[in-house]
Amino acid sequence: MASPRLETYCCPNRDAATQLVMNFQPEVFCGVCIGSASISLLLTILQLLPKKGQSPRKMPKASSSSTILLLISICDILGGLGMIFRSSVWLGFPGFIANISVVNGTDVWPSTFCVGSAMWIQLLYSAGFWWLFCYAVDSYLVVRRSAGLSTIVLYHMMTWGLAVMLCVEGIALLYYPSLSSCENGLEHAIPHYITTYAPLLLVLVVNPILFRRTVSAVASLLKGRQGIYTENERRLGTEIQMRFFKIMLVFVICWSSNIINETLLFYLEMQPDINEMPLKNIRSAALITWIIMGVLNPMQGFLFTLAFYGWTGWRVDLKWRKREIPWESMSSSTVGENAYPSPVNYQSNIHDSKKISTTDSQQTDEAISMLSEGNTSSDERLTRSSPIYQGW
Q1: 12 falls in which pLDDT band (50, 70, 90)?
Q2: What is the recorded membrane topology of this protein (predicted)?
Q3: Residue 345 domain-assigned?
Q4: Number of domains composing the chain
Q5: Cβ-proximal residues to 196 (8 Å cutoff; 6+ apart), any chain
């Protein structure tokens, strides 16, 4: 799982609340993390692989939103691999991990592994949060026709730049001036927790607002495309709204336990003795949510693919398919046209004017297709309701 407690555990003089959760059934907890991350990893890869009998999704343009969805899945996969590796070492080499608690130990590799693995997990999931925020921004900009594939460069700069900057800053403040003296006070821990949970809270607060505005803009686009709001367009708008709802539902399910757990642990840290009997229920709740985090955090990758694409099936197609080179088809059609040229008449001018009249509708279809990518029924309804399909 992804929690700032992983970094604070690397401090030999860690606080009592961190000691409580990290020492609670560590073998069971690591086994839960390995099992959940492995299942999520396998199912996520299965979801992303091409399937037999399914034609590739055809998009009017390359979509930055589809690229962002793929990057979110990649971050989840890499973060899950970090969890599996860290938990496997934790289970397989308990003596190696025990050296982390030595204050003046000469072996630096246990602490290096502890810090490195925790930073890897935290960085990848933090980048996933920023990518999810970029997806909400991009969806809104696509509907407003203010975004394109070129904006993906800006998203890369913002996502990886902010993720690395906040992670390094939080770790530097936590371990200042040295690893053996960190966690001496809340002035070390609080900045680390803020930099860790800032992107998570940003997605929880801002993404629903952007998704709501995007859905409203989609409804306006669908109404303005032909001047009417048909049943097919109403269903398409509802499906886009449901897709956004599923994304936020998965995010809340996977990460609400982290916020609850951190709130309980901070409350315990404020108490003079966390082992007092009146705090028994709070300790139990903190330990329960700790185990829940180990299950739900790694499952985000698979659940997100369900929200993005739905269940894509088991039949994987691993055969390599030769793709037609665009200029081959263009050259063949050009040769045919040059061999049998047709005279120019007034009908071609009428056809050109019809193309100009449908430009706005095509742009609307492209924007809606980007948001409904991965939903075959939505794409089919969009094609049938398109002016091009109706023979304008």
Answers
A1: confident
A2: Multi-pass membrane protein
A3: no
A4: 1
A5: 4, 122, 126, 166, 170
Binning pLDDT at 50, 70 and 90, where does residue 155 land? very high
Instruction: Please choose, from the candidates 261, 265, 225, the residue with its C-alpha nearest in 3D space to the C-alpha of residue 361.
Output: 225
Tokens of 117: 């693995």
Q: Residue 387: CA atoms inside 13 Å, Cβ hemisphere, count? A: 20
- Is 384 inside a domain boundary? no
What is the C-alpha to C-alpha distance for residues 117 and 193, in angstroms, rounded to an integer? 17
Taking the C-alpha atoms of residue 290 and residue 138, their distance in angstroms, rounded to an integer, is 34
Asked, for residue 331, whether it belongs to a domain, the answer is no
Closest alpha carbon to 7 in 166, 184, 171, 187? 171
Give exposure, 13-45, as e/b (b: 16+ Cβ within 10 Å).
ebbebbebbbeeeeeebbebbbebbbebbebbe
pLDDT tens digits along 179-204: 766 766 666 778 888 899 999 999 99
> Cβ(254)–Cβ(306) under 8 Å?
no
Residue 104 CB contacts under 8 Å (≥ 6 apart), including other chains: 180
Q: H helices then E strands: how many in the chain?
A: 14, 0
Contacts by 167-175 with C-beta closer than 8 Å and gap 24+?
167/119, 167/122, 167/123, 167/126, 167/195, 169/195, 170/4, 170/7, 170/194, 170/195, 170/196, 171/7, 171/115, 171/119, 174/7, 174/8, 174/11, 175/10, 175/11, 175/115
C-alpha 117/C-alpha 87 separation (Å) is 10
Sign of dihedral through CA atoms 145, 202, 172, 101?
negative
Q: 226 in a domain, yes or no?
A: yes
**Range(s) of the domain holding residue 256:** 4-50+63-309
CATH number at residue 287: 1.20.1070.10
Q: Are 369 and 57 in contact (CB under 8 A)?
A: no
Residue 352 CB: number of other CB atoms within 10 A?
Answer: 10
Strand partners, 51: 316
